[in-house]
Design brief:
437 residues; alpha+beta; 5-stranded mixed sheet; 9 helices; globular
Length: 437
Amino acid sequence: MEVPKIKVGIMNEAKVEFILNNDYCFNGTIVKGRHSATVSNGKVLWNGAEYSEIDFLPTNEERDSFDLIDVTIGVNFHWERKENQRFRGALRLIVENNKVTTINILSVEEYLLSVISSEMSATASINLLKAHSVISRSWLLAQIEKNKEITSTNTHYCSCTHTDDELVKWYDREDHINFDVCADDHCQRYQGITRASTSTVRDAIAATRGEVVMYEGKLCDARFSKCCGGVYEEFENCWEPVHFSYLEARRDGDNMMDFPNLTQEDAAREWIMTEPEAYCNTKDAKILSQVLNNYDQETADFYRWKVEYTQEELSKLILERSGIDYGKIIDLVPIERGKSGRLVKLKIVGEKKTLTIGKELEIRRTLSSSHLYSSAFIVEKKGEKDGIPEKFILRGAGWGHGVGLCQIGAAVMGDKGIDYKEILLHYFINANISNLY
């Protein structure tokens, strides 16, 4: 099997500016230098002409690169910002939603060089880098296979159920139609060759070339997040209602079956209010710097965290984030928790409206101007006037959805000298590691 090529969506803007640093080929003509593209009559307007699609192809794939100006990273997260980014491979321009979308086309292995350096520090331990190379490759190829299956069977894929009483929605890569994955946290962080890739990263990718995590002959949907909070979550509690036996709840520690039933409210409360021992329960700056880029290190409160809102702040926030006017918020009621303690469903009780929302990312985005670290939280109400709480305190655990590999836990294991294959099988239960190409 040849190394697959993939299409990565980078940005979608009314106007995009880009620099072709070397000789690129467009319809047999060599193009170089700084350019811009906009939309005209539903087509890409570039160099005075309209095109349905434009491909700029490198004349030398190993050497040639292009820059994209003002790429937004961390979309809707607390670290959101713009930066110029450099990429290898081909550049495609298309129109989506009356804006120009830029797509980078390159090989899986070249893509991984960036992802591993974008998702974590390129100075991480070799075992962590190898483990992440395998899961990033596995996840990517599994998503492409999944999309092919959906397309070939003409399956109607729905990621939302909405009734008068309940809104349950999940966010996954099926949002993308014209490319395989996006470049932001919605899929995997991909920032081209902007992040300096070290020889250690290259060695980790080369050493695991073509290696993937499989279960019963099929590619694993190898998810990962920053910090599970002590127990891994299960796939169906964050995305579509499908159970994967290799993504089952376990404690992130030596005794993997030693954890309480966190679907029960009392157990979840006690777990979140304490700091049980786990691989990812670390404040070791050396280890954290392996996983967290500079903007991720702007806070160290991720294993256990706290957010406070006044009544005015919370009601205004929920209105802005959801578009629903609940009036003053009377209560936030846990309805269903997953096995890591993450809320799958939360009832928002307001003066004007009551609605149950889910799944975890919908809860996180509704209750924060960016995203809450996770949906594993308990709610405390302080003060009361005419039955209306004056303050809400959310105390939470973990960072991200908690499914699959826990990056901080894996960093701790790598720092202990644990082999990358053992790290992978710690998080992907009864899976195996195979060579795809």
